[in-house]
Amino acid sequence: VAAYKQAADPGARLVIGPLLRAAAAAVAAGDISVPTLLLNAPDGALPNKPDLYAISLQIETEAQQAAQQAFQEGRRSAYTIVSESQLLRRANRAFIEEFVRLGGKHAGEFLFNTSPAEMTRLRQAVETRAADMAYLSLTTAQARSVRTALEPLALFAPSQAYGGDISPAAVVDLAGIRVFDMPWLLQRDHPAVMIYPRSEIGRAHV
Q1: Backbone torsions φ then ψ of 110, nearest 5 degrees
Q2: Tens digit of pLDDT for each residue in 20-46?
Q3: CB neighbours of 192 closer than 8 A, spacing ≥ 6?
Q4: In the chain, what is the greatest distance between 2 CA atoms, to the nearest angstrom?
Q5: Which helix (H) or strand (E) holds 177?
Q6: What is the pTM of this model?
C-alpha cells in the first residue's frame, strides 16, 4: 500500500501491479486514486471501484465461467467430482459457489475414486436424475477414467482436464466434456491466435 501511494501521489497516470495475491488484495482494499491494473485477483469479489481492474489466470475464474455457461444453457442441478489436488479443490469450490449464486443446486460431491464400488455409486447417482450436469475438477487421466460413468449428463471441466493429447484414444475418452481454457490453446482459428506460427497437427474436439 505504501508503494502504491508512493507511485500514485507524485502524479502517475497509471499503476500496474502488484503481482502477489495478498498485496493485490491490500491495494484493492485501499484508496484507488489513479487507474490501477492488479496483476492478480484478491479473494472474493473485486471491490467495485471505477479505476480498479484485475487480470489473472486463476483457476477460480475458469470454474465461474463454467458455472455461468452451464446455467445459461439451462442446467439447474450439478454433481461435482473432485480430486485431492488443492488447486482442483479451489476450482470445485468456485464452481459450486457461482452455480448456487446463479440459482442452481449442488446435488452432491464425489471424491475421485475409481474403485468398482465407487464407480457403481457414481452410476447409480446419475441414474436417479437428481442432476442434469457434472463438473469434473480432475486431471486429464482422472477425467478420462470417469467420463463414461457420467453419461448422459452434460459435462464441464477446468483446463486441468485437457493436457493437449490429441491421440485418438485420448480424444475419444474426453469426448463431450466442455473444457474452459485460454483461447490460444483451444481456439486455433481465433484471429488473435492465427498470427502466431504453429505446426499443423490434428485438432482435438474436446
Answers
A1: -125, 130
A2: 888 999 999 999 999 999 988 787 778
A3: 183, 184
A4: 66
A5: strand 177-179
A6: 0.69
For residue 31, give the C-alpha cell.
484508496
From residue 162, alpha-carbon distances to 95, 107, 123, 144, 166 in Å are: 18, 25, 23, 10, 10
Q: Are 188 and 206 in contact (CB under 8 A)?
A: no
Beta strands of the chain (E only): which ranges?
Answer: 15-16, 36-38, 52-54, 77-82, 105-111, 133-137, 154-157, 177-179
Q: Are strands 52-54 and 36-38 parallel, antiparallel or unpaired?
A: parallel
**The one-letter amino acid at 94:** A
Q: Which run of H or of E encompasses 120? A: helix 116-127
The per-residue pLDDT for 123 is 93
47-87 residue pLDDT tens: 889 999 988 777 888 899 999 999 999 999 999 999 999 99
Cell 448422459 sits at which residue? Answer: 152
